[in-house]
Design brief:
single chain; mainly beta; 5-stranded mixed sheet; 3-stranded antiparallel sheet
């Protein structure tokens, strides 16, 4: 279709995916379109933006660089999608397909996680000790103990999590003298 503007006599061609009446050619985008080195075990919120008010959005996932797509969320009104407790299994492309009336547009977002942690460093506890010392594997437990005359602040143990951090780290404080 050809549209003429009376004031300037300018003609604009409206075709394909243009979303009238404003004749916006690209009305759905993803910014950023790429998330790299996303920490594993975290939550990642990805989103698309739209220049028009939408009717519905569908989200899709592809683990094979866009050859095949699997619908992961259907007929929502949100332009965002949250990948919870992300792992390398979530690496791939995510596509939001936005529809307005009979027209639709899509934007693709690439997600790549960081390498998963395999170990956690065990901290040195002043006025105390840990068992074991040095490093522990993911899933292993570290126990904290204070030297005589010190009080443990925090939990007695922590677990090495998938993100490479201990779930809890204790400290040891010198016991204060009681006021009498």
């Amino acid at each position: 279709a050809v549209v003429s503007t009376q004031s300037t006599g300018e003609q604009r061609v409206i075709e394909g995916d243009a979303c009238c009446p404003k004749c916006v050619e690209v009305w759905v985008t993803a910014d950023p379109a790429e998330y790299l080195n996303v920490p594993q075990s975290s939550d990642l919120r990805i989103s698309c933006t739209s220049l028009v008010t939408l009717t519905v959005v569908n989200w899709f996932y592809s683990g094979d660089e866009g050859t095949t797509w699997t619908e992961i969320e259907r007929s929502v009104s949100r332009l965002d999608y949250t990948i919870k407790d992300i792992t390398s299994d979530n690496d791939g492309q995510y596509k939001c397909v936005a529809r307005k009336n009979r027209r639709s547009q899509e934007a693709v977002i690439t997600v790549k996680t960081a390498e998963a942690a395999k170990k956690c460093l065990v901290p040195v506890i002043e006025n105390g000790s840990t068992d074991p010392v040095g490093e522990v594997e993911v899933g292993e437990i570290v126990k904290y103990k204070c030297k005589k005359g010190n009080k443990l602040k925090g939990k007695k143990q922590g677990t090495c999590e998938k993100d490479g951090k201990l779930s809890a780290v204790a400290t040891c404080e010198k016991k204060g003298k009681k006021k009498g």
